[in-house]
Known about the structure:
mainly alpha
Amino acid sequence: MIKTGGVYVAAAIAEIAGCFGFWAWLRLGKSAWLLPASMLSLAAFAWLLTLVESSAAGRAYAAYGGVYIAASLVWLWQVEGVKPDRWDLIGSALCLVGAAIILFAPRAPAGV
């Protein structure tokens, strides 16, 4: 469980940083020199998700969604300087609980 959490956090940082590079270029008028680093960051994100212990990619991606939402709010606060409000935090907590249920719920063996 610790490894999975670490992979998800690293993937979230890589994805958000990569996407923010494009945002900064297109919406904030920053240099296009951000784009190669952004693309490498997005490739790292995709690779990191392959490290998650899950029998199905879709389940790993669905569970990651909750972590992505929480990490996006941390980015909002730490990088963009906008403090999340209580509704952001409540919504994020619900998503993290849902992600944990998706990833760690006991399942019947395949084919049963």
